[in-house]
Each structure stands twice: as structure tokens, then as C-alpha cells.
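Q: How would the C-alpha cells look for this protein?
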Amino acid sequence: MKALVVGGGGREHALAWKLAKSPQVDLIYVAPGNAGTAAEPKLKNIAIKPDDISALLAFALAEGIGLTIVGPEISLILGIVDVFEKAGLRCLGPHRAAARLEGSKSFAKDFLTRQNIPTARYQVFDDPDEAITYIKTQVTPIVVKADGLAAGKGVVIAQTEWEAIEAIHEIQVSGVFGEAGNRVVIEEFLAGEEASFIVITDGEHILPLVSTQDHKARDNGDRGPNTGGMGAYSPAPVITERVYNRIMEEVIVPTVRGMAEEGYPYRGFLYAGLMIDKNGSPKVLEYNCRFGDPEAQPIMMRLRSDLMTLFLATVERRLHEISVEWDPRAAVGVVMVAKGYPGSYAINDPIYGLPVPEREDCKVFHAGTIEKGGQILTAGGRVLCACGLGSSVTQAQAIAYSLVQQITWKEAYYRTDIGYRAITREADRDNN
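A: Here is the predicted structure in C-alpha cell form.
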């Protein structure tokens, strides 16, 4: 079978790399891919952008693609699954109407309210003056979100009233996120520990993946501006068996059931970004309608089962027939970015130390990279994700950072504490 993976980031590299290990797959096209996917066996890059749905469809029809796997949210929100299915092609992901769970934060919040799924209190505003008036009546910290897609950067956790008002000016008045910021969602700040809970569903049956925790803030100690993700690890100790059961019962099952009841059956990856409070109560911070990035990288490191078998069962609506085997080891992924990210940053800087020889316990996934004249160059904000497998998060972190230390380019930047919450827990456990 020939497959098509849509996207060019670290998530897509990880998915295509794992798919290539399936004996069911002969060739995987990646559109547009990156320098990492270009160098993998059984993978071939195709210069088509994820938002060019008509070109992707024409290519898939011409090449007889057996299954298309969609990485980035923009393709889903533009309706790639609807278009491909209408043409008789199999495509893994939610339809356009269901993808509004990520495409519109106000739609998601209203859905959560209708379905009695726990989330933060909120208000939605189209008028910036009304938003500012509301902010002045609230306590801080407070959260300001652009309603539409902003590449993981449209969220401001304002510590003061002034910061919240500045966020309104930036998002709605200055329009830094374009049409995505025409409407804002203002939420109460939730205290606790964040976790990423990702499942795959065929619209009825649900298969949870291993737990992960992302690091959204740019700097150590979860400080600095929000990003698309500076690293992730799996498993996340905050997801205890009790918390896991609550998430499934209070969040995931009601979401899948509620979307079906409201006429938007949801199929594909469903990502719930959660805040877990000190009592183990989960609340939904956000939905993503695709696999998380960088969560996909450590999850794929831990997956032992055939990924194509899982994907085919999902699109054929027989997910209940499938079981998945996971590596019991922990995985840590450290994202290396261009200095200045998530703001402005330089590109086309030569990367030294690549390729890193692949071992069973480590892998470097590419994101914002390009190959020119035999040299790998930076081509984005998030550039690489170095992953390690270990008997503990502490050991996996050490392996991941050993890879990071082999790689450099002008003004490369990365956090040095990915996985710190789990490592603190491990140290406390060992000392008791």
C-alpha cells in the first residue's frame, strides 16, 4: 500500500517513520515533509502544502493512495477528510464540522457547556471594548485566547489586568493573528498540573494512547511566552489510574458521545489538553483535532504495535478489534528551536552534528529543516526534537539531552528541564 502523510513537522516525521516500519506499507509520501523525512527509508517528500487541498486530492488520486493521514489542524479545518471521502479515498481525521472543536475555541467552550464536561468559566467577545470592560471586573491571573487557529501561540496567561488588556489590544486591535483574533475567549485561570490526553476514535469506539505531558512555555520552570511546545514526555505521573478513569468518564466518552448526538460524529485523533487540580479533578483547557506535537514523538517512540493496522481499523470503524502494545520504558522529547521563537527568528542557518546515528533507544525527529546542497539548514521556529527511551523519565531525559548536545547551529535554543515534574516525583520516591 502507498500512504500519504500531510504535514512537514516533527509529528509528521514521527508518524511517517513509524508507518514505514509496517510490512503493509510500500511507500509513504510526505507533503511537504522536511529534511528528516527526505532521508528515511520508504519515505518521499512531495512539494504540496497542507492547505492546498485540491492539489493533495489530485496527487492522492493519481498515485492510488490507500490511506491519507493528516497531521496539521489547518488541513482538517479546511475539510480535507470531507473532500477525500467524497472522491472515494480513505482519510484519517475528523470531518470539517467536527474539527471545529479546535478551529473555534468558542464552539468548543459552548460544546463543553452543553455536554456538562468540566472546563473553566468563560465569556466570548467580538468587541474589544466589551472584553476590556469585562476584564476589569475579574481577578487575575486570567486567560485570554484568540478564538481561531494561531499555531499554538494565541493564548496569553495574563498575571495582571494590564497584561490582559494588552493581550486584547494585540489580538483584536492590532490583529497579530489575523482573522483568528476577531473574537476572543476570556477564561478563569485554572491552577494545577497540565497533561495531554490523546485518544484515537472511530466515532464510537475509543482507544486511549499512553499519557503525556507537554511543556508549552518557552523557558525553564514553565516561564515565558506560550509556544507550540518545547518538549514532552510519556508517561505523565499526574495521570494516575484514578485520574485516568475520571478523564475517560468525565471528558473523553462524553465528548465522543456528545459530538455524535449533535450530528458531528468524530473520527481520528482527539487531544484533550487538561488541567488536573490537587484533588485529581480534570478540566478541559482545549481540544485539538489531531495528534499533538511534540507529544507524538515520544508516543511513537513507545509504540510497539503496527501503526498502519491501528489506522486502518479506525477508518474502517472497527477499532474495538484492535489492541496496542506499548514499550514499558519512559520517553522524553526535547524540542530545539531557533532563538526568538515563538516571535521572529532567523532561518537558513546550517545545522551541525546531523545526522545522528539512530539507535533503538533514541531518535532525532526533524521539524523546521530543509536540505540544500548537502547541508541541513533551519527552516522554522521549532527545528528538531531529540527523543530518548529509558527505564525512568530521569534516564530518558539524560539520553535525549545527550543527543541535543551533539547538535548545534547559530543561536540554537532549548529548555534544559523537560520532564522536571516527573523527575522530581522519581527523586522523592527514591528518597522515601
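The two ends are 52 Å apart (CA to CA).

The longest strand covers residues 193-201.

Upvote if useful.
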